[in-house]
Design a protein that fits this description.
Helix content of chain A: 40-55%
CATH topology of the largest domain in chain A: Fumarate Reductase Iron-sulfur Protein, Chain B, domain 2
Bound molecules: iron/sulfur cluster, FE2/S2 (inorganic) cluster
Strand content of chain A: 5-15%
Number of domains of chain A: 3
Number of helices of chain A: 16
Oligomer: heterodimer
Radius of gyration of chain B: 19 Å
Number of strands of chain A: 7
Largest sheet of chain A: 5 strands, mixed
CATH class of the largest domain in chain B: Alpha Beta
Number of helices of chain B: 12
Structural class of chain A: alpha+beta
Helix content of chain B: 40-55%
Order of helices and strands of chain B: EHEHEHHEHHEHEHEHHEHH
Distance between the termini of chain A: 41 Å
Radius of gyration of chain A: 24 Å
Strand order of the largest sheet of chain B: 2-1-3-4
CATH topology of the largest domain in chain B: Rossmann fold
Number of domains of chain B: 2
Largest interface: A-B, 62 and 58 residues
Shape of chain A: globular
Shape of chain B: globular
Strand order of the largest sheet of chain A: 2-1-5-3-4
CATH architecture of the largest domain in chain B: 3-Layer(aba) Sandwich
Strand content of chain B: 5-15%
Chain lengths: 326, 295
């Protein structure tokens, strides 16, 4: 079967900063993956094409690249699925990372972020005589984040990282959660304190991109939401992120629905005068256009709000989050 | 066709023009909307941070109320509502024990969710139920030469398996189809499926505004006259916050952003005032002129 690959070519030594698109049309068997096809190009047509791979079985995590606008493992992505009618397939290097050559990116950014969360067990108390005992149940909760193969796909497509390279990013946050929720780890609180800072768990914009692209079902964003739960449960409340969640809940409990005005004011901080003053002209404009809900007690209650409040009181999680419950 | 209508919070808060525009087109499209009274917010993914079961129960309550009305499809007008409801439904349908547990919470109110509700955003209703050809036939004022950049909003697309994109891959192109049916020209640009930045608005304003500046400039650089979105939260960020975002970028760009029913309404010949277009923070006058729309 014929397939056409449109591959980003970039060689800083030959072409300076410019990348070009090169088209390869080749005959491949139906079961081929995009990686198989790229290897065939390299072996038969164009030995200068740079692509990184090893296991070819979705285990090692080396072959992540953007295929048809989304980060995927080349070795897990079938040609026929990407191009059921023989359409050309776009192949680009991962995003958010520095391209070394063609489809190969520098992994320093990725590993730097993972290392920053101290991705190793730091047990509490004296070492036990024999092994550390952890219950089966507690380890089951960690299976999802432990499935990470460090491929970088989530980091490639993370929309928060795209605007702020300081953001610690999905893979590192999922890894952080993996140790926070490990019953044998003694540094949970310190880890949470770091993740509660700027560029940590609150800086994720909840776009689901990492959940969509992760080839191993780690669902990093869900792990980030669990980190946030742990942060809130640990009593770390002095952040706009915490106030945002608390205000949202208060508003729904009060009237059954969201009050955007309160949400903004509460999140900035009710006594944050400079911010409130600087936002006043904007508030007035919104008000004049009928786009600003009335604050606090003036917010109209929905019929049935008592029932909503009752459910909120009953179901708001009081105990620490159960890891991996998603 | 009759729908249990779930307008969401923002169409009655920060973007009331979305509600009026929806009402303005519904009758013309033959959609009979019966609002579900007494529902809560979906939680928007934020309440879910306080516990997933809490969020899912509130949504199951809404679904049960729609079932009690004898209806099978809930229509919403918000990408975020769509995503949060779809995910709640997906989890409950996958796990019967979980649904039972949730139903126990609803019992006190005499409600029960049997799992039969289908949730559809306005965009899906227009393409899957009204039909693109029918929409085309109703257009009286085609938006000729208007280049429109579609901005989907995260929650209507991801996770794709919960949003039914596996069975309906076309859902990733519905806005383009609607734009074309309205006589406009869809613009492909890198931001179309990215995050608008709204969830970061009060948490990291700079990053949030940077996203707004990026997307509006991207759309502009690809030739767009306006953007269109099915998500009022995206609208709040892309429109209401745009002046701040452009100031941060040091740019004077003014990229209009339409709500989806406003775009459809314009093509159906409805006046800009009735569609609430003058309530926007960024004026859409340039495209109204281009499409020769009266007030
Ligand atoms: S959900 Fe958060 S971490 Fe995941 S890609 Fe989006 S911003 Fe990045
Ligand atoms: S979380 Fe998923 S996408 Fe991210 S590095 Fe790990 S395996 Fe790859
Ligand atoms: S080559 Fe190892 S994951 Fe693709």
């Amino acid at each position: 079967m014929k397939t056409t690959l449109q591959v980003n070519r970039y060689d800083p030594e030959a072409s300076g900063e410019k990348s070009t698109v090169q088209e390869y049309t080749l005959d491949v068997p139906e079961h081929y993956t995009v990686l198989d096809a790229l290897i065939q190009v390299r072996e038969q047509d164009d030995p200068s094409l740079a692509v990184r791979c090893s296991c070819r079985a979705a285990i090692c995590g080396s072959c992540a690249m953007r295929i048809n606008d989304q980060a995927r493992l080349g070795c897990k992505t079938r040609v026929t699925v990407m191009a059921p009618k023989g359409e050309p397939i776009r192949v680009e290097p991962m995003g958010n990372q520095h391209v070394v050559k063609d489809l190969v990116v520098d992994l320093d950014l990725f590993w730097g972020k993972v290392r920053a969360v101290q991705p190793y067990l730091q047990p509490k108390g004296p070492e036990p005589e024999e092994e550390y005992i952890a219950s089966n149940e507690s380890m089951l909760n960690l299976l999802t984040p432990m499935g990470c193969i460090m491929c970088g796909a989530c980091v490639s497509d993370c929309t928060a990282l795209e605007v702020d390279k300081n953001f610690i990013g999905p893979a590192a946050l999922a890894k952080s959660y993996r140790f926070v929720a490990d019953p044998r780890d003694g540094q949970a609180r310190q880890r949470l304190e770091v993740m509660n800072e700027y560029a940590g768990a609150w800086d994720c914009t909840r776009c689901y991109m990492c959940v969509e692209v992760c080839p191993k079902g780690v669902a990093p964003m869900d792990r980030i939401m669990e980190l946030r739960e742990h942060i809130m449960d640990a009593g770390m409340t002095n952040t706009p992120g915490y106030r945002h969640v608390a205000s949202f809940a208060r508003s729904v409990e009060h009237s059954g629905w969201l009050n955007e005005t309160d949400l903004a004011v509460d999140s900035w901080g009710r006594f944050n005068l400079p911010k409130l003053l600087s936002e006043a002209p904007f508030g007035i404009k919104m008000l004049m256009r009928g786009k600003m809900p009335l604050p606090g007690p003036l917010h109209k209650k929905r019929p049935g709000h008592e029932n909503i409040a009752r459910l909120m009181k009953r179901l708001e999680r009081k105990q620490p989050a159960k890891a991996g419950a998603h | 066709m009759k729908y249990a209508f779930y307008p969401g919070c923002v169409s009655r808060g920060g973007t009331p023009e979305l509600y009026t525009a929806t009402m303005a087109i519904a009758g013309r499209l033959g959609l009979e909307l019966e609002e579900i009274v007494g529902t809560s917010c979906t939680g928007a993914g934020v309440l879910q941070e306080k516990g997933q079961k809490l969020g899912d129960t509130l949504n199951a309550r809404t679904f049960a109320m729609a079932e009690r009305m004898g209806l099978t499809t809930i229509m919403n007008i918000c990408s975020t509502c769509q995503g949060v409801m779809s995910q709640a439904n997906y989890r409950m349908l996958q796990n019967e024990a979980y649904l039972d547990e949730i139903n126990k919470e609803l019992q006190i109110e005499g409600l029960q969710y049997t799992g039969r509700i289908v949730i559809k955003n306005l965009a899906w209703v227009v393409v899957e139920e009204v039909g693109i050809e029918k929409l085309k036939s109703m257009v009286t004022r085609p938006l000729k030469d208007v280049k429109v950049a579609p901005f989907y909003g995260c929650y209507i697309l991801r996770p794709s398996w919960a949003l039914g994109l596996d069975d309906n891959p076309g859902r990733g192109q519905y806005l383009e189809q609607i734009i074309e049916a309205c006589g406009g020209e869809p613009v492909n640009f890198p931001g179309r499926t990215k995050c608008c930045g709204f969830p970061l608005g009060v948490i990291n304003e700079k990053n949030s505004l940077t996203m707004v500046a990026n997307h509006t400039h991207d759309a502009h650089d690809h030739g767009a006259d306006t953007m269109v979105t099915p998500c009022p939260l995206c609208h709040l960020n892309l429109d209401a916050q745009q002046p701040k975002a452009q100031a941060l970028r040091g740019s004077g760009l003014k990229m209009p952003v339409l709500h989806l029913p406003q775009l459809i309404g314009l093509a159906l010949g409805i006046g800009a005032k009735e569609l609430g277009i003058y309530r926007h923070m960024v004026s859409a006058k340039a495209i109204l002129d281009k499409a020769s729309v009266r007030a």
